[in-house]
Design goal:
Number of helices of chain B: 8
CATH architecture of the largest domain in chain B: 3-Layer(bba) Sandwich
Largest sheet of chain A: 2 strands, antiparallel
Number of domains of chain B: 3
Strand content of chain A: 5-15%
Structural class of chain A: mainly alpha
Structural class of chain B: alpha/beta
CATH topology of the largest domain in chain B: FAD/NAD(P)-binding domain
CATH class of the largest domain in chain B: Alpha Beta
Helix content of chain A: 40-55%
Order of helices and strands of chain A: EEHHHHH
Strand order of the largest sheet of chain B: 5-2-1-9-20
Radius of gyration of chain B: 22 Å
Strand content of chain B: 25-35%
Largest interface: A-B, 24 and 23 residues
Distance between the termini of chain A: 23 Å
Number of strands of chain B: 24
Number of domains of chain A: 1
Strand order of the largest sheet of chain A: 1-2
Oligomer: heterodimer
Shape of chain B: globular
Number of helices of chain A: 5
CATH superfamily of the largest domain in chain B: FAD/NAD(P)-binding domain
């Protein structure tokens, strides 16, 4: 665990660069994190990020691909279009919630 | 029936449900509580045995027995399909038209492989070049296939997490490697392990150890693979990677029972949201879900169900007496991992502590080695079948504690007790 300055804010990150504390997240941080991994955020990206944050806040668990599809209304194919190759990991990274564990 | 008698209904007579009625029938007076258990099937399958059937290690009669044999006297066993639970009315509707009224309900209907949920998986290739080993029929069909399979590209594949017994596809891969070596044809088989995870397993220390075991056995790993469909002779991911196969052994999507969705009690995979420490439904204070049927973030495995039921039985008595439940489940799991060549590994972990190396249950002594291959671990796994049929299902004590202990475990260099 280290402290990093992202978009002018001091935040705690883990060794993969994920925010440790979701409450430290801001939209400016999200923009910077998205730039780090080469993603330009469109309205649809923001919709999905907001769903993931709201669902995490409600359930304490980062929603998986299937939940983002079923409860959030983002088809798996679209998730891959928005966040190429690794939608779960990339969207969680930008949304400032823990990396999905893929369960156990 | 006595006027004050209350009714406990348990849905599902698998590992968890059978243990629940055995434990609770001993604890609840018959005048106070009637107990009914419902299941659509009359046969109990020793599911860990499905892993061995394809390689001819077990025969069907060793792993299939009548459920009735494990249901204690004083418990009504009803064979019926469950249609729906009406939680507001405290009723269960059965497909045969009967209605059961309950005071307390325990949902223990587990999780089921659903090949129908992935496009192309159940096409004409199913049970020909596309196989699974999570059902009795599937394991038997795969055994037939492997008998005279000439070799080629074997792809072992996990559709999506969570799955029942998350180490089983790894075990299958290790046993397949050994099986083809014994047959003198390992050089004719190319094995690829395809997973939606970013490595061999969900937890970092074990993932590294198991990943090394795969590369030692010349098994290629294709991580982060989210399947879109099965085509003829290949699987295709959402990001358009294609993996060709001559023989696909897949773990289909696992889902809870459909009646859970119909009853409005489930999440998107039909698992019942419950408190992860005591298994009480988030919505109803007279509904519990235990074993694989719940959404607790633990492995879907018999060992978890076993440790969970030990605590649940104590808690249930308090709960129905109007008292607080004071036993808290920690997500304890304990899994043997067959690694081939007469050896196995053992992992022991919970919600917060990942599998670590060490000795179990006695520090320094074992006899079991954690996260390390040994013959004793393999013998432990083989002996477990006897324990399952003779002790575990009947609710008799096993010589292992319900909560995980750090005794005997070696902490990783960086103290890392949770995964990200």
């Amino acid at each position: 665990m280290t402290t990093a300055t992202i978009a002018g804010a001091d935040v705690q990150i883990d060794d993969e660069g994920f925010l440790i504390d979701p409450t430290e997240w801001t939209e400016d941080i999200a923009r910077q994190l998205a730039t780090n991994i080469g993603i330009e955020l469109t309205d649809r990206h923001w919709d999905m990020i907001r769903f993931i944050r709201a669902d995490y806040a409600a359930n304490g668990v980062t929603p998986g691909t299937r939940r983002v599809q079923a409860a959030g209304g983002f088809a798996t194919k679209e998730q891959f279009e928005l966040f190429p190759k690794k939608p779960q990991k990339k969207s969680a990274y930008i949304a400032g919630v823990p990396k999905p564990a893929g369960c156990v | 029936m006595p006027t004050n008698q209350r009714h406990l209904v348990v849905l599902g007579a698998g590992t968890a449900g059978t243990m629940v009625v055995n434990k609770l029938r001993k604890k609840l007076k018959k005048d106070d509580w009637k107990i009914t258990i419902v299941d659509s099937s009359t046969t109990h399958h020793y599911q860990p045995g499905f892993l061995f059937l394809p390689f001819g290690t077990y025969t069907t009669d060793e792993i299939v027995k009548p459920k009735r044999k494990f249901i204690p006297d004083g418990v009504d066993f009803m064979v019926a399909e469950i249609e729906k639970v009406l939680p507001e009315d405290n009723q269960v509707l059965l497909a045969n038209g009967q209605t059961l009224s309950y005071d307390q309900l325990v949902i223990a209907t587990g999780t089921t492989p659903r090949p129908d949920q992935t496009e192309g998986m159940m096409g004409p290739q199913f049970h020909d070049t596309v196989h699974e080993f999570y059902s009795l029929d599937g394991s038997k069909a795969l055994a037939e296939k492997l008998k005279d399979w000439p070799g080629g590209k074997l792809v072992v594949h996990i559709t999506e997490m969570p799955i029942k017994c998350p180490v089983a596809p790894l075990e299958f891969t290790f046993l397949a490697d050994d099986f083809f070596k014994q047959k003198g044809m390992r050089d004719k088989v190319e094995i690829t392990y395809v997973t939606p995870l970013d490595g061999a397993f969900t937890k970092p220390v074990a993932s590294a150890a198991l990943g090394t075991m795969l590369s030692d056995r010349h098994v290629a790993v294709e991580p982060d693979f989210i399947i879109e469909r099965v085509d003829e002779g290949k699987i295709v991911s959402y990001d358009e990677r294609e993996i060709p196969f001559d023989l696909l052994v897949t773990v289909p999507l696992n889902m809870g029972a459909d009646f859970i969705a119909a009853s409005g009690l489930g999440d998107e995979l039909n698992y019942v949201p419950v408190n992860k420490q005591n298994f009480l439904s988030d919505k109803y204070d007279n509904i519990f879900a235990i074993g694989d049927a719940s959404n607790i973030p633990a492995s879907k495995a018999g060992s978890v169900a076993h440790f969970a039921v030990d605590l649940f039985a104590e808690n249930f008595i308090s709960h129905v007496a109007g008292e607080k439940m004071v036993h808290f489940f920690d997500g304890h799991a304990n899994c043997f991992i067959e690694s081939g060549d007469g050896k196995g590994m053992l992992i022991d972990f919970n919600y917060d502590t990942q599998p670590l190396p060490g000795k179990y249950p006695l520090p320094g002594v074992g006899p079991f080695s954690l996260l390390e291959e040994s013959r004793v671990n393999h013998q432990g796994k083989m002996f477990f079948k006897w324990m399952y049929w003779n002790l575990l299902l009947k609710g008799r004590p096993l010589p292992v504690p319900a909560l995980m202990s750090m005794v005997g475990k070696e902490e990783p260099k960086e103290l890392e007790t949770t995964e990200v």
